[in-house]
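Side project, low priority. Logging it here so it doesn't get lost.
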Amino acid sequence: MSNIDPKVLRQKVENLNTLPTVPGALQRLSAIMEKPRITLVEISAFISNDPALTTKVLKMVNSAIYGFPGRIASVSHATMLLGLNVIKGLLLGVSVFEWMQKTMKGLYEHSLACAVASRVIAQKKGLKEPEEVSVAGLLHDLGISVVHRFMHSDFVAIHDLVANGISYNDAELQVLGLSHGEIGESLLKYWNIPELISDVVKYHHQPYLSQQAPTLASVIHLADYMTQMLKMGELKMDTIAELDHHIFSTLHVKDLTELAHFIEGYREPLKAQLESLKYLI
């Protein structure tokens, strides 16, 4: 078990932008995100001045994740359509997942799949702002990638416990004293990502605990569960996909039978949408 005090761990997470192994684009992004009153004009200029980042953002915006396939040709158009909160989350996603693609491809694929599934569920349930739901789905496992990249010995210890039959969440608490949701929340709050999104990331395994957005947290939880049940994204973290039954009342799902039909009904549409994202992987 790690001897890291949770408070020390939080500080370490919040100081990730100072580590030399963090990609340069993410270091620059961190400086932008820390500004409490950043504007869309400043964000657009930041993206436009980085050709590689511009390409990644436009690829992501024009994907099935955000529902504007092939319609957005410029960064200014993207920021105008999606708004500040979504663009900030999107920027963080494409920057963080730059390293994840190389070291945790399965988690990257799972995150994309969860973003697509989150949007599908949000639209099915008639939720407003499905783009923000997509961002939350994209970032929900941010904490896992942070532990893998910057606390790798702890990451290995967690997986050793999982191999012995302990759930991933319980293994994290034994080794770190914090869940990946809490780690992700700390980083998102430090980077001034809206509290709505950071709260959902924190509680995506326990959506009933969310004070800010229990419905949104339930959507992300169900999307996470769906992608694992449908084996989309090749995530191999836990042997069992855990379902919080509080989501039945929150999302107005009658029972497990209705849920199973719902999930199976989206197998082929989700598979097709995920296939359309292969160019992002």
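Brief comment: The chain has 16 helices and no strands.
Revisit when time allows.
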